[in-house]
Amino acid sequence: MNFGIVAEFNPFHNGHRYIVDELKNNGADTVTAVMSGSFVQRGECTCVSPYERTKMALENGVDLVLSLPVPYATASAERFAQAGVDILCTTGVINALGFGSECGNKELITECAESLLNSEINAYINKYLGEGVSYPEARQKALCEMCSGNIASVIATPNDILGVEYTKAILNRNYKTDIYPIKRIGASHDSNEFSENICSASAVRELLKKKENVSRFLPEETALILGEAINNGKAPADFKNTEDAVLYKLRTMSVEDFSLLPDVSEGLEHRIYSAVRSSTTVDEILEKIKTKRYTHSRLRRIILCAFLGITKEDVSKPVPYIRVLGFNNKGAELLKVMKKTATLPVVTKSSDIKALNEDAQRIFELECKARDMFSLMLPVADVCGKEMTDKIIVKG
Predict the structure, then answer these.
(1) Residue 281: Cβ within 10 Å count
(2) What are the percentages of helix, strand and coil residues in the chain, rounded to 5?
(3) Exposed, middle or buried, 289 (CB in 10 Å: 0-12/13-18/19+)?
(4) What is the pLDDT of residues 15-54, one digit of tens each?
(5) ω into residue 219 within 30 of 0, thus cis?
């Protein structure tokens, strides 16, 4: 049985280790992770590079690590999930998708996903959007009205929201892949609370910014890799280190430029343009754009996409390749099979991209640009080209 997971590992903590161990204890011969690169779905940079995070994953039971390209890693939950599922399922070797879940109820998650795929729900969603609420709130209210509060409650919590999106993605493409929700333990997603040796990745990142010790929340191997990166000035990365560059980029953009960004609709480009022209910090811009209709994460993603040059067209393109970041011995065997079964090109070195189509080359170009920008966010800035020169990590 080969399990897949979609993850950010930002950084890889004890909660992630728990999920991997649970999959291995429940029949997983291998675990393959599709992992975000230098930027994540909240519209922020990762705390440490994809190279170090791949090492963390392989040291903690993941057998094969694949890349989730930046246009999808920084997209809405629906597009993020669809791209992650597409990469896993087009390998031809994944039997089931595992994920952390607040409810841990496979049937309830599946029922919620099926309800959201029912076209009748759109009328309910549009009704609530017309009242000025955010899309997530409109969707939950629509489920309450159309189905039941029990089903609607599934999309009230962050991990279950993604779990439902993964399930929708599988159903949408008719993949023959099962789902395996794992009941989340300890602190909730994005919580700053600690539960013994478990806390959320966001809490770990906040502690890192304060230069506090986070080792009790991390597997020993992760703590060693992260500690080495910190000592070498390669962590923690901070988006604010490039704030002037972000502001410069935003100030060079026209209203039309903003209209081409993912998640920008209904005249939001005018609001963004006005906020950019009258603000001196990114936080000030976000505060001026924010309304009940737009979540903070959505707005951060828009600003990030503007900085990285990611457009609606980029996000709408199907995933063009499966890119390998690292593997262990079991992962190597899986990769050998995958090269025969995959329905997308399998990329193991940057030069492989040259043989692919323009869409693939565009996506990889964005990956390289994102990594170069991430390199400026480190405590000690790194050189350009790391996405091209980092080698696949092979764990013996």
Answers:
(1) 13
(2) 55, 10, 35
(3) buried
(4) 999 999 999 999 999 999 999 999 999 999 999 999 999 9
(5) no
